[in-house]
Amino acid sequence: MTALILVLIILVLLVVLSQLRVGAEVEYGEAGIRVTAKLAGHPVLLFPRPKKTRTQKEKEAEKARRKAAKKEKKAAKKAEKQRRKAAKQPPKPQPEEQPKKKGGTVELVLALLPVVVKALGALKKRIRIDPLTVHYTAGCVDAADTALLYGRSSGTAGIGLSLLEENFDVRRRDVTVDLDFLAGRSVIYVNAGVSLKVGQVLYLAVRYGLACLKVFLQKRKSSGKKAAPKENQTGADAAK
Q1: CB under 8 Å to 14, separation ≥6 — which residues?
Q2: Residue 45 C-beta-side C-alpha neighbours within 13 Å
Q3: Neighbour tally for 151: CB within 10 Å
Q4: pTM over the 0.85 mark
Q5: 78 phi and psi, to 5 degrees?
Q6: Any bridge partners for residue 11, and if so which?
Q7: How confident is the model over 63-97, as pLDDT tens digits?
Q8: Which residues of 47-58 are buried (b: 16+ CB within 10 A; e: fewer)?
Q9: Are 134 and 176 in contact, with CB atoms under 8 Å apart?
Q10: Other Cβ atoms closer than 10 A to 129
Q11: 198 Cβ neighbours under 8 A, 6+ residues apart
């Protein structure tokens, strides 16, 4: 009974973990780039790293100096020990130059390409883009250039958004294209996040990993069959 309860608890935990979403969110604006990783909705700032106070910097510098001094002392002792050891032993022969590694056959890569393409196609349909915020303001020194840029940007934004919505699960989208005749330059604000479930990643890894393994084994088996007749022919020639 205890073992059954333990198995059920493990199954429930696996189901819960498989439903967790992992991803990242990128924000670009006047302040620069900001990258945040997300695990089950909890953000973790990756870039830029938070600025450290002067006290923290001084403490870390002192710690680094002590560590460097300790490392130099240890290296000096090790060098002295090796020098004494080398003086007692005859010099070792120089190792032979290793031959360059040769490439594998192209046939295996070509056979794996269809599986990789299918995996990418299945993956992109499971990726969620949330949020998708793009605020673009077209601006040039010349008013006519600003109008032309605004027209091209509007068309490009429409086509790009259609492609994204066709291939990905897009949520909370806010894409706008404006123009400013007095700005003198174009500005853009982007805030985009991508995520997918842990279970989906594991499922695709197992499914297409096994497919790649199957192709690899088939190619290995076929190459073995091709090599066998050559060996038999060589043996027959030797007998003659």
Answers
A1: none
A2: 7
A3: 13
A4: no
A5: -65, -40
A6: none
A7: 888 888 888 888 888 877 777 776 676 656 666 66
A8: eeeeeeeeeeee
A9: yes
A10: 19
A11: 17, 18, 19, 20, 21, 22
